[in-house]
Amino acid sequence: MSIIADDNTNKKVDINAKNPVIKPEAVEYDRNFENSIRPKSFDSYIGQSALKEALKITIEAAKKREKPLDHLLFYGPPGLGKTTLAGVIAEQMGVEIKITSAPALERPRDIIGILMSLKGGEILFIDEIHRLNKVAEEILYPAMEDFYLDMTTGKSQTVKTLRIPLPKFTLIGATTKAGELSGPLRDRFGIIHRLEFYTEEELAQVIKRTAGILEIEISDDGALAIARRSRGTPRIANRLIKRVSDYALVKYDGAVNEKIANKALDVLSIDEYGLDNTDRGLLTAIIEKYNGGPVGIETLAAALGEDSRTLEDVCEPFLLQAGLLQRTPRGRKATPAAYRHLGYRNAVEQQNLF
Ligand code: ADP
Q1: SS3 of 161, please?
Q2: Which of 28, 88, 108, 352 is the most interior residue, by most CB within 10 Å?
Q3: What is this structure's pTM?
Q4: What domains are there in the chain, each with its CATH number?
Q5: pLDDT tens-digit profile of 258-285?
Q6: Which residues are tagged catalytic?
Q7: Binding site membership of 77 for ligand 1 (Cβ less than 6 Å)
């Protein structure tokens, strides 16, 4: 996999810049760690079985026809394996993959440069594709559809349009917000798939696989204890196994079992739903400051001193799926389950207290 250099700053493009509150050093560290444990084949890619089966058939058919794959769009919350899956597909097709993200494609020459650098059959992966600007999208349309670039040269009356052919490539787009993709862009993807949250059993397998790579001793019930608090997300499961293993090493002999995992997770303030302080802070603010909601996301972000995109992309998907948060046209509401989980009385009783 290659990471594209941003020729404006000469720095590596921060492909994992999904969470603006994370410091760059942390992102770099995370990326190296993630790359070392990223599955490279369908066999090591755990879960998402329906999606994997569909993709295997698509890949087999493309290979038989000796044609590149149709353009693919993956959507779903962060950390569910969209980038990883794109890498697995490239491996399976036996082609190179170039990885970038929409915020790195701000100027026309960014997207033109990357398209012109592609070789036949290669895969271009664009993360956060819903954040592409209009100009970049317009350049992508003919590139995706007919594999050419429309370039204009000269000024006013002498303006000429040049049609530059491109090699046939496959675009894989990833987004946490399919709804924010423009209609014309969405229509140009032949295949659109949603990634699902993982079951506890699947996450336990992810944890055991990662523990194996990192040479951490872990029992089945230890893996399951961590899986239960991983919010259905492999990226979180992988982070937690490392933190739990640190705790096991310092306080015990390094081996992780259920008891040690639960103790470590309590110390990390990860509760039995997998919520951390930020998640609980968000629900608590809705309940205590806004009588349970509805309250707008920007107001909440300001009250919490958090970035609204972090709340929307990182915290909310799981809170919604867990039934702790409700999205209404007038804003976010805490559900009765959220009141119960945080130890409050029900919404009506609570309101009478304030
Ligand atoms: P996304 O692109 O959806 O944000 P990533 O592909 O970067 O997510 O995955 C985050 C991490 O989780 C990766 O480093 C990878 O090790 C792990 N991971 C994701 N999906 C799987 C899977 N199906 N099986 C095993 N590990 C996975």
Answers
A1: strand
A2: 88
A3: 0.86
A4: 3-31 (no CATH), 48-194 (3.40.50.300), 200-267 (1.10.8.60), 277-352 (1.10.10.10)
A5: 999 999 999 999 999 999 999 999 999 9
A6: 82-83, 127, 176, 235
A7: no
